[in-house]
Amino acid sequence: MMKVILKLDFTDDKTKQKALKNVSGLFGLESISLDSKDKKLTVTGDIDPIDVVAKLRKICYTEIISVGPAKEPEKKKEDPKKAAEDKKKAEEAAAQLLKAHQQAYYQNLYYYQNHPPAAVAPAPAYPAYYQRSSEEDPNACVIS
């Protein structure tokens, strides 16, 4: 989990909406928050900060303020049974995330059927050209 804080230079609400729309399409995103007064965008999730900046720079000037791990709440000591249940839930969530990722990754594959070549005769070859001399043909025109 990473927390990325970016400073955006947008002038109107339309640009702000475009920025939010582009960032929300990234894979692995957990939360987005935008502070319009300070023009700061906070993005949290399993994302690459460079990908976020690359998407936003197409819309407006973007500057990275900070990149760091997202703060997780402090954990108290738990019972072993509860820890085992949480571990199972985490494994199930990871399996679902992997399945969703695989569906997104493999959805654009194209399958082509290979058909046998058609039984069509090949095109006829062009006739061989040869040069005729005027001696062979008395009616030939000679340009001198």
UniProtKB/TrEMBL annotation:
Region described as Disordered: spans on this chain: 70-90
Q: Where in the cell is it found?
A: Membrane
Q: Which SUPFAM superfamilies match?
A: HMA, heavy metal-associated domain (SSF55008)
Q: Where is the composition biased (Basic and acidic residues)?
A: 71-90
Q: Which family does it belong to?
A: Belongs to the HIPP family.
Picking any one GO molecular function of the record gives: metal ion binding
Arranged from A to Z, the UniProt key words for this protein are: Lipoprotein, Metal-binding, Methylation, Prenylation
Q: Biological process (GO) annotations?
A: plant-type hypersensitive response
Gene3D superfamilies, sorted: 3.30.70.100
What name does the UniProt record give this protein?
HMA domain-containing protein
Write down the membrane topology: Peripheral membrane protein
